[in-house]
Amino acid sequence: MPNSLQPILLLLLLSALTRVQAQDDLLGLLGEDSPKKEYVKAAFKSSRVINAHSMEFINPGTMDFRILHRFGNIDQGLKNFFGLDQASMRMGFDFGLRPNLMAGIGRNTFKKEVDGFIKYAPIRQSTGPGSFPVTVALVAGMTVDGLPWADPSRENYFSSRLAYYFSAIIGRKFSDAFTLQLTPTLVHKNLVQLQTDANDIMGLGLGGRLKLNKRMALTWDYTYVLNGLPAGYQNPLSVGLDIETGGHVFQLHVSNSAGMNERAFITETTGQWGKGEVRMGFNLSRMFQLKKKKIGS
Predict the structure, then answer these.
(1) Which residues contact 104 (CB under 8 A, 6 or more apart)?
(2) Homologous superfamily assigned to 39-289
(3) Domains of the chain, residue spans
(4) Handedness of CA 206, 212, 214, 217 (dihedral sign)
């Protein structure tokens, strides 16, 4: 090969290698910008709507310390200062185990109940490849009645104190401002007050969130009891206002229910909204990081 052609061939070879490298870089950039599956977050600002569980989960390694406070009926006027002279409370501790798994335990002054639950979402609302339009979450819980036996002279069983509930949450965050969910729930009570009362009670819940501004949102949850509701009891309805204040969410609400777990508010709500038999209250949620996040996670 003539020596005069060697520089030309070398330049052509370098040019070809440069083009190949440029194409690889472009393909790499296209790979980074390709759509990725992302899970929808912040459908609600809490793992509860007001009384009922929401489709939201708390982060793994996080503990949510929750205080649910409910005053007395406001219809009694000054006699009990519009309900402020009475109060019932639930104090709970919820733990994030995985992005789609959490569990919690709480203590209620109403019937001195202890309750616990576990919540798992096999399907989560997402965008991108393989996305799904809704979140489907399953909740299983148990309550233990702590009141003294109504008739201590007879033989009583610990199992009579137990009740269970099972919920399926189907929810969707339609936009940054609006979320809606349906929650069919089955409550089973081992012991009922009358022989004619049902041990199994079904309810269909409807909950939602409407964002008003950057830090405030209107929330509501309602349960229509489909069967087995004894005479004198009502369907529970609660309406609240969520206020974000830094590290916690503060919620003001009005409800016709005194109970604050599924067994209590679905099967034993006595207040009637039309008669003013409602209670003011608040929920306070404060997050604590129990496990340090891994760098890069």
Answers:
(1) 64, 92, 93, 94, 95, 116, 117
(2) monomeric porin ompg (2.40.160.40)
(3) 3-33, 39-289
(4) negative
Contacts of 33 (CB under 8 A, 6+ apart): none
Reading the block at residue 64, the tokens are: 């949510």
CA distances from 138 to 157, 169, 238 (A): 29, 6, 22
Residue pointed to by tokens 């004894």: 230
Short-list 231, 235, 241, 245, CA closest to 274: 235
Burial bucket for residue 188 (CB in 10 Å: 0-12, 13-18, 19+)? middle
Angle at the Cα of 165 from the Cα atoms of 225 and 142, rounded to 5 degrees: 140
pTM for this predicted structure: 0.83
pLDDT band at 2 (very low <50, low <70, confident <90, very high): low
Here the tokens at position 206 are 């409807």
Q: What is the pLDDT of residues 33-67, one digit of tens each?
A: 567 889 998 999 899 999 999 999 999 999 999 99
Mean pLDDT of 164-174: 97
* DSSP type of residue 229: P
- Which segments of the chain are extended strands (E)? 38-39, 62-73, 87-98, 101-108, 114-123, 126-127, 135-144, 162-173, 178-189, 200-211, 216-225, 237-245, 248-255, 279-289
Question: Which amino acid type is present at position 34?
Answer: S
pLDDT surpasses 50 at 296: no
As beta bridge partners, residue 287 has 64
For the stretch 241-281, pLDDT in tens is 999 887 678 899 999 999 999 999 999 999 999 888 999 99
The bridge status of strand 101-108 relative to strand 126-127 is unpaired
Residue with tokens 């520089």: 7
State the average pLDDT over residues 91-113: 95
